[in-house]
Every structure is written in C-alpha cells, then in structure tokens.
Design a protein that fits this description.
The complex is a heterodimer. Chain A is an all-alpha fold. Chain A has helices spanning about 1-5, 10-30, 45-55, 70-85, 90-100, 110-130, 135-140, 140-165, 165-185, 190-210. Chain B has 3 domains: about 10-135, Fumarate Reductase Iron-sulfur Protein, Chain B, domain 2 (Orthogonal Bundle); about 150-295, Rossmann fold (3-Layer(aba) Sandwich); about 300-420, Rossmann fold (3-Layer(aba) Sandwich). In chain B, the strands form 2 sheets. In chain B, strands 2-1-3-4 form a 4-stranded parallel β-sheet. A 4-stranded parallel β-sheet of chain B has the order 6-5-7-8, sandwiched between helices. The chains are: A mainly alpha, B alpha/beta.
C-alpha cells in the first residue's frame, strides 16, 4: 500500500512540483532581465559564455592549491552522485520504465559501490568543512544544511534498498527522493541548473572586455 | 547636478537593493552554494583570516532582499515574520565590508565555481548603500569635490596649467590645449597632476616622437570618477558626461584613459551604459596606445635597462579591463631583465587601495596589513624597481613599501618608456 502510494501518486506529485518548480525558478531568474551592454566589445560574448561554462569546472590558473579541498571533495561527491543517479541498475530500469521508455547499460555492482563511497565521502567532507571552517560557518544558512541532510538521507536509503532487496526499504528510498525533489526548486539545489546561467553571464561579460574568465 | 546622499534612509536603500537585482544577480544568488572559495581569492580574508571579509558575505544584505523578494521560503518567512528584514544596523555594519574591505578587484569573480561575478554584485550593492547615505566620509568628500570642483583631490585647471608650464619649460614645446580635431584627447588623474607630473612630460615626449596630434581639454582633463567608487550611477553619469561632451566638442578620434585603474573602467566600459549610447570616439588606455605606437614603429627606444624589473598589474586595467599583453610587450621593449611576480596578469593581487579604499583614512591600518600579500609577491622575485600603470596603485605601493622598510622605487610604465626614448626622435631635454 505504502509502496504503491510512493511509486504512484506521490511520485507524480513530486515530479510535477520538481519540473514546474524548476521552470518557474528559471523564469524568475530571466524575468529580471539584463541591460544591454552598450560599450564596444573587444570580442563577442557568446564564445566567452561557452568557454566559462566549461572552464569553471576547474580552477583559475595558479589557484589549484587554494581550491584543492573543493576540487577533491566536490568532484568526489558530484561524480559519485552522477554515477549513482544515472548508472545504478535500478535507476536505469526506473528511467526506462517510468520516464523515457529507453535505458542504457548500468555500471557493474563494484562500480556502484565505488561511486557510492565517493559520493558519501565527498558529501561528508563538504559538510564537515561547512560546520568546522570559520568562513563556512559565517556564510552557511539553514538551506545549506537541509540540502546536505536530505541528499545524504536519499543516498543512504538508496544504498540500503539496493543491499537489501526489500519493498519497505525501496518505499522509504522513494519517499526520501520525493521529499528531495519537492524541496529542490525551493532551495540552493537549484544550482544544478542555474550554474550554467551564472557562468555564461560572467563568461560573456568578461569576454566582451577581452578576458577569459 | 546630482548630490552625494548623506542623510541615512534605510527604506530608500532597500528599494534600490531590490531594483539592482537583475537576471545576473538572480542567477548568481540562485547558484551560490556557499562554498567559501571566494574567501581564498580575497586578500582582505587571506591576510587577516577574518571570515567577515569573505566576498560573498559582503553582499549579504542584497542576498537577504533577493531571498525575501524572489524565493518561496523567503516570501513565506518574511510574511510570517520569521525572516528579519535588512535594518539600519545592517546597513551600518555592511558599509565597512562593502567600502573598507573591498577594492572591487574582482579576483573572487575569477574563482567562483558557479561563475558568480561577485565584484559586480558588490558594485550593485554599493548603489543601494550610496542611495541610503551609508558611505564613508572620505569617499563622500572626494565625490563632492569631483562634482563641485572637478577633481576628487580638489585640483583645478590652474593646478594643471602650472604643471603644464613646467613641462613646456622642460621640453621647449607648447602643450596642446583644446586643439579641435586632434587625434587623441588625453585625460589625467588628479594623482598624476599633483604627485606624478612626470607622466605629463612623458606623454608629451612620446606623442612628439610618434607624430600624432593630441590635446588636453580645459573643460575635462580629470579622468577619475568617484561616482563609480561610491556606487552612485547618477553622479558617475554626470562626471563621465563632462568627458564625453568635451571630447565630442573637440571632435577627437580617441580619448586616452591615463595610468589609473578605475578611470579606465569608468570611461571605457561604464560610460556608454551610463549615458545610454556609444560616444562618438573610441576610448583606449594609454598602455594600448603605447603598444600600438610600438607595433607601428612610432615608439622607438635607443637604450634598455638590465635592472631586474617587475610589473604590478592594476586590477581595473587588467583583470576587469582586458589590457593584459600591451604592458608586457612594452616592458620587454626596455627591460632585458623583466620578471613576473607569482600570480601576475589577470590573477594578480590587488595593491589594497583600489575601489575607493585609499580615499578613506580609516582604512590605513587594514591596507597596510593586507599589503603583506604584495610583499610576498615582491619578495619572490626581488626586483630592483617596480613598474605599474596606475597612479593610485603607485601611491599605495609606495606607502606599503615605506611601511615595510623595503627600499624599492616604483615608477609608471609610461615614464619608464620616456626614459629610454630614442634621442634623435625627440627634442626633449
């Protein structure tokens, strides 16, 4: 009964809130508009936007040391989560059956374990820094902590569901993922979409001035 | 004529904070994951360890307004009275962080993983603080003098004319004033006129050799723009319009921004947006002009120096202005032993006095503390002389060097080139 609810109505509610919420948030960003830059550019902004979209995935020249923790922990978490989300066998099956109608080859079990370890280690490291580092303590908000906690719970219940093939664990995982999906558009998790916009804006503006940002 | 706001008005400030939130700002706040990496790029944090100086924290009032106006939880929290609106106390507290501990150097904007241009956010926040009357007295005074006298340092045309007479005596040439149809109109910063008049002579000698016509406008010779620094677009527009009007009246092809960082930013990148159109002339930085003369064979030197020279990149000219290679081409032209400091170029560390920080007496202690970063950069290469291209940087560098008892001369690049101009090509004595 509970499994049917979380895999049925609640899933569609969560999916709707997620999709509509994300679209509304993106529209809200663009709604404010940006004034056209009238200064004669050194070069066009589009190339810079695309460039910065890619290059900000690494650090600025000479800044790797200062960003070492962010790079290691950040990539561990994001890459691990990406593999779990899109290449864990149950997720591939779910995407095929419930979302797209087609799937792809999932990663083997050992790769899932590796990705899970990376994702958990990265997330825990990032959160530990958030609660221990004076800068992070100063700038962190409730939203930052909630996002970490909800993501952690969703990942944890997912691993439990995979290790123990039990319907109740699967239902709990679905529920936690749906809570995360509902929370997503209202939170800092939106950076998963808006990072492309902010990188592009800055890349374009700086390119017009002749700088590779 | 616009005036400097000195009466505190928090409601007005909050309204302007709201009005400053454009799509860029909205995407930046939506993207920020509070990773804190920007702190590692800011010399005010790295040299003090004070987390309040984390760049993204400096725009916290704007973030709170954005949250309460643009997000679900923010609107709900505000409606239920859970989230506190930005208060008078917040304005008073953040004034220090926005004006005293930020030079708008933009180094943080180069490292943000989600691409936030934090310097842009700070510049926008300053608009609200200026409208609310929460600005430092030093900057208020400089801005008032710029509006009323025409110069943030209070110098007048008579002061410039006095310096010009010295140049005319030294060179034997008449300086071109208000020459209709000249190729270039040259601007100066007050700092150059008062502290480094040798820049004016260097310009005269270089243009004489290059054979290009140039002029100084008696109506607008001041390039600096306190409106940009204090964050008041109305004042910035008024100041920049004086230059645009004078240059268009004279019908010049180019206006040359002097060795001053924010002046270049004001006249090259902000002016068209402030006046709502592209002016009828192009704006070039003096380094770009000199490099063009070099490339065309109009700038000739007959000597070089084997001194160990290094170059301090002014933030607004290089990282925020896009002039990166000309100064290096010019340095190699006269210096056989030119060495780059660590992080030189677009990731160079600020001198600590830009963005109006040097106009505030109360920042001296902090400025000297953050100069430790420059000291380390210099100690890594141990130069015989330090070259730069911004009069404000030069003053701050000299102050820091003096404080640290470092025996190192600072010189402007234009003057350095003038030192080595080919003898036969100039009549200067």
């Amino acid at each position: 009964m509970f499994l049917e609810f979380v895999e049925g109505p609640l899933w569609y509610i969560a999916l709707t809130i997620f999709v509509v919420g994300v679209v509304l948030r993106l529209l809200d960003v663009f709604r404010s508009g940006v004034r056209t830059d009238l200064a004669p550019p050194r070069r066009e902004g589009l190339g810079g936007a695309l460039r910065t979209l890619v290059t900000r995935s690494w650090t600025a020249p000479g800044f790797t040391r200062g960003a070492a923790f962010h790079l290691v922990a950040g990539y561990m978490f994001h890459l691990g989560l990406f593999v779990l989300l899109f290449f864990a066998a149950p997720h591939v099956l779910f995407i095929e059956e419930r979302l797209l109608g087609f799937g792809w080859t999932p990663v083997p079990y050992w790769a899932f374990i590796l990705a899970a370890n990376f994702a958990f280690a990265g997330l825990i490291l990032v959160w530990l820094r958030r609660v221990m580092h004076p800068v992070m303590r100063r700038i962190s908000t409730l939203d930052d902590h909630l996002a970490v906690i909800l993501t952690f719970i969703a990942m944890f219940t997912g691993c439990m569901a995979l290790f123990q093939h039990h319907d109740s664990l699967r239902a709990i995982h679905m529920l936690t993922v749906e809570v995360l999906m509902i929370y997503f558009p209202f939170s800092r998790l939106m950076h998963a979409f808006t990072f492309a916009i902010s990188r592009s804006y800055t890349g374009a503006a700086m390119a017009r001035k002749g700088i590779n940002a | 004529m616009p005036e400097v706001v000195t009466e505190h008005n928090v409601e007005r400030g909050k309204e302007v904070l709201k009005s400053q939130i454009d799509a860029k700002i909205a995407s930046y706040f939506s993207s920020c994951v509070h990773c804190g990496l920007c702190a590692e790029a800011c010399l005010f944090y790295t040299e003090t360890g004070d987390p309040r100086y984390t760049p993204i924290y400096k725009v916290e009032p704007m973030r709170r307004v954005w949250q309460q106006e643009n997000t679900f939880w923010g609107k709900l929290g505000k409606g239920l009275g859970i989230l506190k609106e930005v208060t008078e106390q917040d304005f008073a507290e953040w004034q220090e962080m926005l004006y005293e501990s930020c030079t708008l150097c933009g180094r943080c904007s180069m490292v943000c993983p989600v691409g936030n241009d934090i310097a842009y956010m700070i510049r926008k926040s300053r608009e609200a603080f200026a409208a609310a009357g929460y600005t430092p007295e030093g900057l208020q005074g400089a801005t008032r003098r710029a509006l009323e006298i025409g110069s943030p340092m209070g110098i007048t045309l008579h002061t410039l004319e006095a310096q010009i007479k010295h140049v005319e005596k030294a060179t034997g040439w008449e300086m071109p004033m208000d020459q209709q149809g000249a190729d270039y109109m040259v601007l100066f910063s007050s700092m150059e006129v008062v502290n480094f008049p040798e820049y004016i002579e260097a310009i005269a000698r270089i243009f004489h050799q290059a054979g290009r016509t140039w002029t100084i406008s008696s109506k607008a010779f001041e390039a600096t723009n306190s409106g940009i620094q204090i964050g008041d677009s109305g004042i910035a527009r008024e100041l920049v319009s004086r230059v645009v009007n004078a240059a268009e009246e004279l019908g010049v092809k180019y206006v040359i921004s002097p060795e001053c960082g924010h002046a270049f930013m004001a006249i090259r990148w902000d002016a068209p947006n402030l006046i709502g159109r592209k002016p009828n002339f192009d704006v070039v930085h003096i380094l770009e002009v000199l490099d063009q003369f070099r490339a065309e064979g109009r700038l000739k030197v007959d000597s070089t120096t084997d001194e160990r020279l290094t170059f301090h990149d002014p933030c607004q000219i290089v990282r925020r202005g896009g002039v990166v290679e000309p100064q290096r081409n010019l340095m190699h032209m006269v210096a056989t032993n030119f060495v780059e400091m660590p992080d030189a170029g677009v990731m160079n560390w600020c001198c600590g006095g830009g963005g109006g920080v040097s106009a505030q007496e109360e920042t001296e202690e902090l400025r000297l503390k953050v100069f430790e970063r420059k000291k380390r950069q210099l100690n890594a290469v141990k130069p015989d002389r330090l070259v730069t291209a911004c009069a404000n940087c030069r003053i701050i560098l000299e102050e820091g060097l003096e404080h640290n008892e470092m025996d190192l001369e600072v010189i402007g690049l234009t003057e350095l080139l003038a030192e080595h101009l080919a003898e036969g090509d100039t009549a200067a004595k």
